Amino acid sequence: MKIKDVITVLEQMAPLAYAEDFDNVGLLVGNSNNQTTGVLVCHDALENVIDEAIAKNCNMVVCFHPILFSGLKKITGKNYVERSIIKAIKNDIAIYAVHTALDNHKHGVNKIFCDALGLQNTKILIPKENHIRKLITYTIPENMEKLRNALFDAGAGNIGNYENCSFTSQGFGSYQGNNDSNPTIGMPGEFVEDKEIKIEVTFEKHLESKILKALFSNHVYEEVAYEIYSLENRHQNIGLGMIGEFEQAMDEKDFLRFVKEKMKAGGIRHSAFTGKPIKKVAVLGGSGSFAIKNAIAQGADVFLTADLKYHQFYEAEGKLLLADIGHFESERYTKNYIVDYLTKKIPNFAIILSEENTNPVKYL
Asked: What stretches pass through the bilayer (predicted)?
């Protein structure tokens, strides 16, 4: 198995198109055509993790956080990032990061967070914008079913919990080919007006090349007429954060003790208690202060995230409880999820969970 084969599976788990624009995901170091000896899955690809990969004969490290986030002008080993990169290159170890590609997935970081707490009826807190596109094309009735099914197979027509969604309508199309044309119906130079079927389907934007390939491969026209539009609709199954609820409400202090135990947090910083029971819970693994207003708008009783600053605790304004459980802690089960996913998709292959604790924050 080559590294690129593992990457194919990883991109099924967390498509790179789901990542935020500011992020740096995918293959960061290494040659995708190299054979894979084993995969080590970690939270952060630090130097001690690269040492662990060497010791365990793994020439691919899959990390949650990208060790290369911003550009490097020099690689001299002067800091922890450069030392990790140098060691990986010297030992021919590939590094692949998933980060916000998995953050935004409906089964990703925040669903893992919710599942750890036992939340039910979960949904995306901030649905992703500018991710849905619409294809409109036209064909003869005899070609409609074959073409539409090919578009479905390529990933078009998925809306929430439904698949194979489309709209078709019938009308009349006209054309007149020049002397170099080869029309499906009629002759060059002949004006043709005949029945046509209009097909409309939506798709996720990263599937566009696949959708167009299916369109051109299964259409009967010499010149395929089609239109693609970017929609303003939010994608309800892709986005940051998640909100869910408990079957039974819980006292605020009991809730925080529960979270501390479940997420193995060294400590929890929180805003003033509201005096209201906790039933509806919003979560966002990692740095999530930007989503405080979204949690309030969704009617959450509490918002669990990390890296909150002093003044951001004021933003609770008595409307909900804000709790900072720690960056690493809020994402701690992510690497376990990646290992489980890869093990199911690539059985009988060395997929190893890193034993290194890369949390830089310590508690007394």
From this structure: none
Beta strand 120-128 with 278-287 is: unpaired
Rounded to whole angstroms, what are the CA distances from 215 to 145, 173, 225, 257? Answer: 12, 18, 10, 55
Q: What is the pLDDT of residue 70?
A: 86
107 is in an annotated binding site: no
Residue 206 annotated as binding site: no
Residues 162-200 pLDDT 10s: 999 999 999 999 999 999 999 989 999 999 999 999 999
Q: Over the stretch 111-122, which tens digit does the pLDDT of each residue have?
A: 999 999 999 999
Question: Which domain CATH number covers 33?
Answer: 3.40.1390.30
Full domain range(s) for residue 170: 132-233
The C-alpha atoms of residue 221 and residue 219 are separated, in whole angstroms, by 6
3-state secondary structure of 277: coil
* pTM (two decimals): 0.89
Judge whether 311 is annotated as a binding position. no
DSSP string spanning 317-351?
TTTSEEEE--HHHHTTTHHHHHHHHHHHHSTTS-E
Question: Which of 204, 233, 262 is the last residue in one of the domains?
Answer: 233
**Residue 209, H or E segment:** helix 208-218
How far, CA to CA in Å, does 30 sit from each of 63, 92, 94, 175, 251? 14, 7, 4, 52, 50
Q: Could you tell me which residues come within 8 angstroms of residue 102 by beta carbon, excluding any fewer than 6 positions away?
A: 13, 14, 18, 64, 108, 109, 334, 338
Q: Are residues 153 and 226 in the same domain?
A: yes
Q: Which helix (H) or strand (E) holds 8?
A: helix 3-13
- Give the three-state DSSP class for 241: strand
Please check if 103 is assigned to a binding site. yes
pLDDT at 161: 85
* Domains contained in the chain, number: 3
For 316-338, what is each residue's pLDDT tens digit?
Answer: 999 999 999 999 999 999 999 99
